[in-house]
TrEMBL record:
Residues 220-237 have a biased composition (Basic and acidic residues). Homodimer. Keywords: ATP-binding, Chaperone, Cytoplasm, Nucleotide-binding, Stress response. One of its GO terms (molecular function) is unfolded protein binding. Pfam families: HATPase_c_3 (PF13589), HSP90 (PF00183). Its main location: cytoplasm. GO terms for cellular component: cytoplasm. Residues 1-351 are annotated as: A. It comes from Streptomyces rimosus subsp. rimosus (strain ATCC 10970 / DSM 40260 / JCM 4667 / NRRL 2234). This is Chaperone protein HtpG. Belongs to the heat shock protein 90 family. Residues 26-183 form the Histidine kinase/HSP90-like ATPase domain.
């Protein structure tokens, strides 16, 4: 057959130029694309040889060769795979030229911007054309396994391309790039440089199934002999294999040592310590992927930094695609490191941008469940590992209670909290429920800056006396998630610093009568103080949570706590102020004395100052801030002076 010349269609030519100049953010990926295509060709040949007994091919040494010629400025990627026939070259390599179907042209014309056009390119699989980013001319020579005649395809990537027969073409495909001049500013590197080739293969194609080889560099003296006076040259050195081919996630657990897993973890995480846990996943069926995830043994210093890079490495058929794929794991699992290798994904032509499709969502869902189930397994089978994990990452995992409603219950079950039950050992909600006192209906908790501050809070007094266990929540995120998680196993989560503290579930008639009598005795004082402190508090009432302190401040059941309001303020969001409730301990001498004094001297101005002091002391006892510290100090000084 004579040489055939084809002309690119106008639309396709524009599309090709756009891809060459703007789609790929890193020109190095041209080699990734060519090696990936070669690897696919080798896979297809092995499969074809198994299916067709009559196919006379040698599959004993399937490999990919990279050849460079610095003087001629050429780079060749060669494989001994399935190869292509003349018709396949026109159909496959001429994808752009032959993609001028009515549907494609219509969609292209409807694409109003470059980003939309990029998405269209991805539907037509033209990664081969990435070669034109670095080459002025590309020549492809190929011969299909089982056929005698080969085909040469050649183009400068501009107006035309040619296709012609070749008599002596070896089986497989060889793509030769006539490289553009080196231009560092345009990120056009010297792609005949051996170290550059090694770098690209190591980064993008290290785990390709087949060996990627490059001829070993002959020593200077060897070259001299070969070029000298006919003296017999030594045998050529063995070619250098550039890739490890060690995709640990694709090998069975029995074939891989813990040391190899740890080495991979250190390589991808840049952490010098061994991982705490190694997680393996393999999904088969309509959508296949493999995952190898690691839970670190310590939190990185930038875990809470805004610019913290998260996400696992993404591969497609062992070809590296993305370093930090955020789409596969939620932000609250940003500490998880590892590799996910899918058999097929909806990527655009540059393989750099994931399309949001059900495959990504499916992997995301399964990976999250795998991580959470592994942590749950650690709780029961490796408690020391779990303790380390929760100490390092518990604060982050609890963020999922706010964002991941689907897995909220699973997160609650792997969470553990400090508690009044044990000074050292944290507890899970399940353990708390199992220890609940008879008649106890709620899971009690209190938030605060530290364990000491919470334990010394007046709010704890009655709960301590009655032996009720209280969760001590001191992480900033605790202030937020407790507002959104209503219950656990049917038990309501209730703050001991909000609403009424109803601890007398089975009140006797005698106790009820005594309470009503006490309420009647203090009615005058409560009404008077509510009026006097009306600018600071919503209500003054008697407390059932105090046994030692004279007073405490509580929030109404549905109100935002001061700590949470401060968090929103720090983020630039102002919440409306809500007055709180002052509770008095009717059994305290100070409160009883104030009641009697107010009944006897209702017009005594000093009593109003005492009421202010009582409110201020309650604020300070919970770690709050006084609205007027100077006035509080003045009133306190006056009272102390009189006492001397």
């Amino acid at each position: 057959m004579p040489t055939e010349t084809f002309e690119f269609q106008v639309e396709a030519r524009q599309l090709l130029q756009m891809m060459i100049h703007s789609i790929y953010s890193n020109k190095d990926v041209f080699l990734r694309e060519l090696i990936s295509n070669a690897s696919d060709a080798l896979d297809k040949l092995r499969l074809e040889a198994l299916r067709d007994d009559t196919l006379d091919v040698d599959v004993s040494d399937l490999h990919i060769d990279i050849e460079t010629d610095a003087e001629a400025r050429t780079l060749t990627v060669r494989d001994n795979g399935i190869g292509m026939s003349h018709d396949e070259v026109v159909q496959l390599i001429g994808t752009i030229a032959n993609s001028g179907t009515a549907k494609f042209l219509q969609e292209l014309k409807q694409a109003k911007d470059e980003a939309t056009a990029e998405g269209l390119i991805g539907q037509f699989g033209v990664g081969f054309y990435a070669a034109f980013m670095v080459a002025d001319k590309v020549t492809l020579v190929t011969r299909r396994a089982g056929q005698s005649e080969g085909t040469r395809w050649s183009s400068t990537g501009e107006g035309t391309y040619t296709v012609e027969p070749v008599e002596d073409a070896p089986q497989g495909t060889a793509v030769t790039l006539h490289l553009k001049p080196v231009d560092q500013e345009d990120q056009l590197f010297d792609y005949t440089s051996r170290w550059k080739i090694r770098e690209i293969v190591k980064r993008y194609s290290d785990f390709i199934t087949w060996p990627v080889r490059m001829a070993a560099e002959a020593p200077a003296e060897q070259k001299e002999k070969e070029e000298g006076d006919g003296e017999e040259a030594k045998a050529a050195p063995e070619p250098e294999t550039l890739n490890s081919m060690k995709a640990l996630w694709a090998r069975s657990r029995d074939e891989v040592s813990d040391e190899e897993y740890h080495e991979l973890y250190k390589h991808i995480s840049h952490d010098w310590t061994d991982p705490l846990e190694t997680l393996r996943m393999q999904a088969e069926g309509t959508f296949e992927y493999q995952a190898l995830l690691f839970l670190p043994s310590r939190a990185p210093q930038d875990l809470f930094a805004r610019d913290h890079k998260r996400g696992v490495q993404l591969y497609v058929k062992r070809v590296f695609i993305m370093d930090h794929c955020e789409a596969l794991l939620p932000e609250y699992l940003r500490f998880v490191k590892g590799v996910v290798d899918a058999q097929d994904l909806s990527l655009n032509v540059s393989r750099e941008i994931l399309q949001q499709d059900r495959q990504i969502q499916l992997m995301h869902r399964r990976l999250v469940k795998k991580v959470l189930s592994t942590v749950k397994e650690m709780m029961t089978q490796r408690p020391e590992n779990y303790a380390t994990f929760w100490r390092e990452f518990g604060r982050v995992v609890k963020e999922g209670l706010l964002s991941d409603h689907e897995n909220r219950d699973a997160i609650l079950r792997i969470a553990s909290f400090a508690t009044t039950h044990d000074q050292e050992k944290p507890t899970t909600l399940q353990q708390y429920v199992e220890r609940m006192k008879e008649g106890q209906e709620h899971i009690y908790f209190m938030t605060g800056e530290s364990r000491t501050a919470i334990e010394n809070s007046p709010h704890m007094e009655a709960f301590r006396d009655k032996g009720y266990e209280v969760l001590l929540l001191t992480d900033p995120v605790d202030e937020v998630w407790v507002e959104t998680v209503p219950e656990f196993e049917g038990k309501e989560l209730r703050s001991i610093a909000k609403g009424e503290a109803d601890l007398d579930e089975e009140e006797t008639e005698e106790a009820k009568a005594e309470r009503e009598k006490r309420q009647e005795d203090f009615a005058g004082l409560l009404s008077w103080m509510t009026e006097r402190l009306g600018e600071q508090v919503k209500e003054v009432r008697l407390s059932s949570r105090l046994t030692v302190s004279p007073a405490c401040i509580v929030s109404d059941t549905d109100d935002v706590t001061p700590a949470l309001r401060n968090m929103y303020r720090a983020m630039g969001q102002e919440l409306p102020e809500a007055k709180r409730i002052l509770e008095l301990n009717p059994g305290h001498p100070l409160v009883e004395g104030l009641r009697k004094a107010q009944a006897e001297r209702p017009d005594d101005a000093d009593l109003a100052g005492t009421a202010e002091l009582l409110h201020g002391m309650a604020l300070l006892a919970e770690g709050g801030e006084l609205s007027d510290p100077a006035r509080f100090t003045k009133l306190m000084a006056e009272r102390l002076e009189r006492a001397l």
